[in-house]
Write a structure and sequence with these properties.
Layout: E1 52-57, E2 66-69, E3 75-80, E4 88-93, E5 98-103, E6 110-113, E7 117-121, H1 122-125, E8 126-128, E9 135-139, E10 142-149, E11 152-157, E12 163-169, E13 174-178, H2 180-184, H3 188-198
């Protein structure tokens, strides 16, 4: 089950009957079902205060080719995996500047981000905890955790409960909500990168 991205279960369920769907009704998702069932309202999961929301949309056909729309419906980021070079996924900010890259060409994917993440295996940068309940993300020497919580995936400082960002999804989009504190800590770009990896449907370990 864990040979591929163990958080892939967040994406499962399409086409399943309500009898077999663990996200149906009022039942909470399991630890591997942290993103909401399509159509679930983002109505709970803790307050983030004055958040900034980014929507991953225009999938072509997946999140590895999409736009990320921010406040005022402006394109904040573009994620591109060229058909002629599917081994690389390139991340550009709103100015068109490349800020991160995923290299899928080897036996394990590698990731790097300008100024914050030296090139390394994704499994090292976002390593699973021993209980496989969270992923630890290292940015500029600081340790952060991505942890399923109800219908969301929360980003916090490791060993802290203070929310910095969270992810949820609907039937056709993925959303990243980030706090001013998260932005001040320089986590916006890397959170876009992490969200894409977790929702890529590819093996990241």
């Amino acid at each position: 089950m864990y040979g591929l991205n163990p958080f892939d279960a967040w994406n499962m369920g399409n086409g399943q009957s309500s009898e077999n769907n663990p996200w149906s009704g009022s039942q909470s998702p399991s630890v591997y079902g942290a993103l909401p069932w399509p159509g679930s309202p983002p109505a709970s999961g803790g307050s983030l205060g004055d958040i900034v929301t980014f929507k991953f949309t225009y999938f072509n056909p997946t999140i590895l080719n999409c736009k990320v729309v921010g406040p005022h419906d402006k394109t904040g980021f573009e994620i591109n995996t060229e058909a002629s070079s599917p081994a690389y996924t390139v991340f550009k900010d709103g100015t068109g500047t490349v800020f991160a890259l995923i290299d899928w060409s080897g036996s394990r994917p590698h990731v790097e981000a300008l100024g914050s993440i030296p090139k390394q295996p994704v499994a090292s940068w976002m390593r699973l905890t021993p209980d496989r309940g969270s992923r630890i993300m290292i940015v500029d020497g600081a340790s952060y955790s991505w942890t399923p919580s109800g219908r969301f995936v929360h980003l916090t400082l490791t060993n802290s409960s203070t929310l910095l960002a969270r992810i949820y999804k609907t039937h056709d989009s993925v959303y990243l909500e980030i706090t001013p504190s998260g932005i001040q800590l320089g986590l916006l770009n890397v959170s876009v990168l992490a969200t894409t990896l977790l929702q890529s449907g590819k093996s990241i370990d």
